[in-house]
Amino acid sequence: MNLKDLEYFHHLVKLTSFTKVAQLLHVSQPTITYAVKRLEEELQTQLIIRDQTHHAIQITESGKLLDAHIAVVLNELKTARVKIHRLQNQKIVLGLPPIIGNHYFPKISVDLLQKKVMDQVTIVSGGSQDMLQLLKDGRVDMALIGSLNKIVHAHLVAKVLTSKPFMIVVSPRHPLAQKQSVSFAELTEENFVLFNEHYVHAVAFEQLSDQVSFQPKILYKTDDLNILKGMLKEQIGIGFLTEIALDQTDDLVAIPLSDSVQPRFYISLVQSENILLTSIQEKIATTVETFAF
């Protein structure tokens, strides 16, 4: 089966016009026609129905099924090309959500520098939810990802490195700042400033809200940690963050939750199950995996 034939047919399904496909791919119209004919002969089925009256085509059920599989093949080939290019350049693309990256990567980078592989690491930043998609698309080789459960995903391998609690975060001037702990049910009258849906914090917060059956007052959502911290300092609302989102210079107070059942922030090293690493890339991966989280 010819790869070009598959590509031509995939475009034909999208454009439903031999002329448009030929123009797009800079080939003759008979080239597209013969490609479809070869596929139909090899698969012994009709892939398209030609409507000569309206100069249109219809894709048969067999054609739609074939195209669905072609899309997977073409995407895998695209991912393979990207990974082979990185393999040849000895580079590894590491995905880091901002919270995990800000807290851990400066410390991990010390080990990478000592092993003289720091210049082989390219960092891509984004929320944990987005990072999973980048991994599936092959745009990152591995990532440190935050989740509420152990990550189980087809074609991805995940190893839990540590887990951290979520905290209620307030300004030192807020009345709650004096409490040693707080239950989520005590916060019904509070205004919240939160991360948006790109972060697992939003899911954890929703779980706790459902657990105690109240509708929290959310004033603002953002994907920017610095903006979020600034709003908390100004007492615009209270926050909900994992403990590693804070450092000693933030001038914010983190209050543990006292709820007996509460979500935890799992940090996992996730990579493609079929990733092939060079010795240098393996050294980088091992450095990240064995870091004392």
Automatic annotation (TrEMBL):
SUPFAM superfamilies per UniProt: Periplasmic binding protein-like II (SSF53850), Winged helix' DNA-binding domain (SSF46785)
Spans traversing the lipid bilayer: none
Gene Ontology cellular-component annotations: cytosol
GO MF entries: DNA binding; DNA-binding transcription factor activity
Keyword Repeat tagged: no
PROSITE patterns: HTH_LYSR (PS50931)
Superkingdom of this protein's organism: Bacteria
Keyword annotations of the record: DNA-binding, Transcription, Transcription regulation
All copies of domain HTH lysR-type, residue ranges: 1-60
InterPro entries listed in its UniProt record: HTH-type_LysR_regulators (IPR050950), LysR_HTH_N (IPR000847), LysR_subst-bd (IPR005119), WH-like_DNA-bd_sf (IPR036388), WH_DNA-bd_sf (IPR036390)
The keyword DNA-binding is assigned to this record: yes
Similarity remark: Belongs to the LysR transcriptional regulatory family.
Cross-referenced PANTHER family: HTH-TYPE TRANSCRIPTIONAL REGULATOR YBHD, NITROGEN ASSIMILATION TRANSCRIPTIONAL ACTIVATOR-RELATED
UniProt name for this protein: LysR substrate binding domain protein
Organism of origin: Enterococcus italicus (strain DSM 15952 / CCUG 50447 / LMG 22039 / TP 1.5)
